[in-house]
Amino acid sequence: MPQKTTSLLVLALPSLRSDAMQSESARFTTRNESRFRVDYPNSTARSVKVIALDETGRRLVDQIALLPWARATFFTSLSHEQSPVPLRAESHAVRAWLNDIAGQTKSLIEEIETADVVVMIVGAGSTADAAPLIGEACQLRNVTAVGLVLQDEETTDEAIERTLRKMRQFVTMLVVASGGEYAEAMLTALRA
Amino acid sequence: MLRKEQNELLTQTGPGTPMGDMFRHYWIPALLANELPENECPPVRVKLLSERLLAFRDTEGRYGLIDEFCAHRGVSLWFGRNEEFGLRCPYHGWKYDVTGQCVDVPSEPAEGGFCKKIKLKSYPLVQIGDVLWTYMGKPEHQPPHPEWEFARVPSEQSFTSKRWQESNWLQAMEGGIDSSHVSFLHRGSLNTDPLFKGSKANQYNLNDTRPVFEVVEQPGGLYIGARRNAENGKYYWRITPWVMPSFTMVPPRGDHPIHGHFWIPIDDENCWAWSFDYHPVRALTPAERQAMANGQGIHVRYVPGSFRPLANKDNDYLMDRAAQRAGITYSGVEGIAMQDASLQESMGPIVDRTKENLVSTDNGIIMARHRLLKAARALREKGTVPPGVDPDHHRVRSAAVILAAEQTFKDAAKDDLIARPGVAQSSV
């Protein structure tokens, strides 16, 4: 227990102006005072593009796309013109399309240009071949890219490593999650 | 963003609540051992998980943590007399042992055995390291004692303090897994605080304010890796372990002691911020110990005679705008702990998470909430023991390492993230 070595008079330490209203001070961070927090939307909906990179990702995207979202759009695969391997997306030179859940194709570049966040979903162990193309397109347009790697009980560390290594340089956030429900939690948290 | 009902579930820890049930599956820190320094010393009032309790140490040195109030007329037993193997209520002399069992009711004939029918709720209280730990759940679910390294190293290698934080536990804990705020909020302290300064890591922190994160699940919770640029194309990684429900460690710097926290609910609007420093292989130096006692590093100075920080909401945290302007402190508040606490308390006692706007770098926080919600529901619906109860989950460490660009921290730093007796921390 800290010792009482100082006069209690010192404790007041009145840095507050004596004429300050109490609600102008930190003292009024009470539950009651929380009622007066301005009740006005402090953000507008973000445009989130969710892209499956493999079959595991596609199954999950099909599932979560059915939930109500503000401005999230979901794509089950990427197709592109023949290109030298590996794909590098100084890729505005590469013509690539995203396939949405209704089976329509959309230009990758146009989708990314209208995105606030791009989320790539992939199963651990996948080679995530589309990640460089999407990731570089995001980097060129200053769009945040997130990678969500799904593991299950049988996933090996080696499989996770393989996918992380492939994706790391193209995303600003990588998450390895057990089970697909995290995708819903994350998109909800991001106000997708 | 969390829905209102999710926020309530995570932040309410009283008896009968899902998160309260979950906290009651763990050994949690209750008091510093030096709060009960000797046999028959004065009892101490303790509020934990919205329950008012009283801790005392009896004539034989046994610790007790019991319902604060006498079963007779509801008097606080804090006024009691700690004498002859029990605590006696000063009102009518009823006496209780460390298990809460009433052992004497002077007004009733001893032969009648009335006192055997009176028993206060009690919880076990054991000393491990500098801390008295309690388990507030059902006896049949009581796990083995905790194995946290900071509490298991010799006492000369460890220092623990606690402070009262006037906010819900969750917003305090979330600060502990939010590595990206370090480059801003604490930038003024990294090169001046005696328990932080002088490490190369600080330059990496200050030079690269846009870390890249990787969040990886581990059996007891999460590892949150923050990657910043180092030399020659390599990366500087700070890896923060979070063990459920509320244990976090700060990645180390140089040969400074490693530090970390427990965030323990007092009630839904207050929590104890437990702060520990330890070195795995050497005694703390007198200078380090003195700095900690002086409130430096992650510790605080107190209002004398209390665990309330000297800089608190009643004095606007001793805000110093000149220091803020000069860059001595980034927020104007002195000291790493109070820089965090002042902002977390400013959110209000329970922050309204329906109004927040998280970004992708907040995935550590998002994942922690997700795992807490999932574990609380699994416990309630299926009786699944939550992660972090198993003492194996306690044997973790934070780490700071330089890795080649192609290396994955979970693999390359695997050994660095395990508490290994006699092996120094991995630090930069």
Classification by helices and strands of chain A: alpha/beta
Shape of chain B: globular
Total number of helices of chain A: 6
Helix count, DSSP H or I runs of 4 or more residues of chain B: 12
Ranges of chain B with pLDDT <50 over ≥5 residues?
none
Which quaternary structure do these chains form? heterodimer
Largest sheet geometry of chain B:
8 strands, antiparallel
Q: Which spans of chain A of ≥5 residues are poorly predicted at pLDDT below 50?
A: 5-16
Please provide the count of β strands of chain A.
7
Trace the largest sheet of chain A across and list its strands: 4-3-2-1-5-6-7
Q: Helix share of residues of chain B? A: 10-25%
Characterize the biggest β-sheet of chain A: 7 strands, mixed
| Mean pLDDT metric of chain A | 85
How much is the radius of gyration of chain B in Å?
Answer: 22 Å
Kindly state the mean pLDDT of chain B as a whole number?
96
Measured distance between first and last alpha carbons of chain A: 48 Å
Count the E strands of chain B. Answer: 19
Beta-strand residue fraction of chain A: 15-25%
Helix content of chain A: 25-40%
Q: What characteristic shape of chain A results from the CA principal axes?
A: globular
Quick rundown:
Chain A is of the alpha/beta class and 192 residues long. Helices cover 26% and strands 22% of the residues of chain A. Chain A has a seven-stranded mixed β-sheet with strand order 4-3-2-1-5-6-7, sandwiched between helices.
Mind explaining what this structure looks like?
The complex is a heterodimer of chains A (192) and B (428). Residues 5-16 of chain A have low confidence and may be disordered. Chain A has 192 residues and is α/β, with parallel strands linked by helices. The radius of gyration of chain A is 24 Å and the shape is globular. Chain A has helices at residues 31-34, 55-64, 108-113, 131-140, 157-167, 181-189, and strands spanning 48-52, 72-80, 96-100, 105-107, 117-123, 144-151, 173-178. Chain B is α+β, with helices and mostly antiparallel strands and 428 residues long. Chain B is built from twelve helices and 19 strands.
